[in-house]
Input
Amino acid sequence: MRGTTPRRNQGMADPVLASMVRSMGLDQAPSQANRSPEVAAHNRRWMENGRHRDGPVSRDRIEIKDRSLMTAHIKAKAGWL
Output
């Protein structure tokens, strides 16, 4: 299950952005064409990790007894990613 919130596709996969960019005679959105090598590498890594990020939601539920500790774990993982 991916959730019930509609989300837009990113980059040129978004049909609205793609039609606007093509109507201006461009191949890419200017904001995406002028990325630094560091930002481009980060975005490639993010997309490569998508196969792990977009997997099925586990049916097994874990009771969280200490929410502040779990919050700290989640923030640490987010910082690492």
